[in-house]
Each structure stands twice: as structure tokens, then as C-alpha cells.
Amino acid sequence: MPVENVLRSTTRSALGAARDRADRDQSGGASERSLHSKSGDSLASRYSIRVVASVVFDIETVGVSWESLDDGQRTYLTKYVRNEDERDKVPDLLSLWPLTGRIVVLGMVNPDSGRGRVWYEKTDGRLEETSADGLFTFVGDTEPTFLAEFWSAIVRFDRFVSFNGRCFDGPFLMLRSAALGIRVTKNLCGYRYAIKPHTDLLDVLSFFGASRKWNLDFACKVFGVESPKEHGLDGYAVGHYYRENRLREIALYCRRDVEATAKLFLKLDKTLLPVLEDTRL
To answer: Would you state the CATH architecture of domain 54-278?
Structure first.
């Protein structure tokens, strides 16, 4: 399924909402319809209403091998360790940093349509499949290829939603892509204390660090959303699954992650986010 299909349902519903708003304005004598529109124009161009599409994104990463780093790099990474226990743990941290890690799974979903796409690392030829429910496309390909496809797809969206994406997923995607020579098309980080265009739900739930931080699993349970962790896999196990070549299972976990984040976003978008947007937190 082409990436454009992810947008189809959202665009249709958004344009429907735009039509309804414009019709209400027209009945009240305040139509925002362009005076010079032609009958063949799209609804988006006929009405002065900007259609905003949202996308939830998430990545799963692994670290490069400790042996692949030269002596200078290893010395730099262990410069501030205080004891041998901390030194032994450094190789396990490489998956957390974009200059020492790789993206092995990348997922995105439109919260309004429920349609999404998950890319996963596959080095022996491209494989593209559609999920049984028809909502997701799973694509196996090389990391540079799927990163380029991601940046091509995300330009169609105006709002980015994540859980800890401002500090992790966003910077990782941008720096890793740059290191591979891939053009970054959107700033996924933005201003630290803004909720648009990037809405990081971890920031929202902690009021940008003013109160306790909650993980996605805990937040989902409180807000009545099925947690992606309920199927046995979590982010800490990704490296183990990767070493066992269980990429499809990681891809399915990533789908559950973006879907849970999308459902949590929709709940907050009806309750908390409007007042935060109004007060420009």
C-alpha cells in the first residue's frame, strides 16, 4: 500500500469537517469561501481552511558493536565512568545515542484514520505486506532506504505526536539520517516547551517536567488504552530480539506502540491539550 493511502481517510474526514464549518459560516453570512474559486477546485483550496494532519511516530534502535569503535571512541564514551561496573554497562547504552546506534524499526500512524506503516531492517531484498486488518503496511528494507521513505512521507503532515520523541526519537531520526547522508525534511524537535507542531505526550503528562514523569505503559492503563507492553515485549528487549533475528516481532511491537500513543493522544486532545494550547504552555 503506498504511503499516500495512509493519508486518504484523514484528508477525507478533515475536508468533510472543513465543508461543515464553511457551510455553517455561510448560513450566518460569514462564509470564508474564496470569491474566485472554480468549480473544479478542491475543497481545501475553495475554502480558506487549512487541513492539518497528525502523525504518531516511534523508533526501535540497537547499538553498534563495541568492537566496531576505535580506541579513541571507546575512551571518549567511558571518560566519566566511576567504576568498572559502570564501564561494563556502556556498551548496553549505545542503542540510546544516534551516533552509536542504528534504527532497525520505524513506525508511523495517522491517529484519525488509524492507517499506518512500519518499516523494519531487511538486507536481503525488499518485502512489503499488508496487515490482516488492512490498516498497516509492513515494509522490510535497508535502513537508508526506509529512512528516506519516512522523510518523504512525513512532509505531508503538520503535527507530530510521540512519547518521549522530543528527547529521543526525534533527535535520533534526524542525526542518524544526517550521518547516512539522507536529507531531513522536518524538524521533529522544535521549541522545547511547545506542544505544536510536536506534541510529546511525555512532556504533556509531566507538564514539561514540573511534575512526575509517567511511562507509556502506566499512562495507557490509567487512560483506558491497551498498553503495548501487554504482549510481552518492551523496549528493553529489542536488542535481544534483534540478535535473534526476530525483526517481525519488533515491528509488530512498534505498531502496538504507535497505536497506543495515537489513542492516548486522541483522549488528551479532547480533554487536556486544548487548554494547554490556549495558554501556550
So the answer is: 2-Layer Sandwich (3.30)
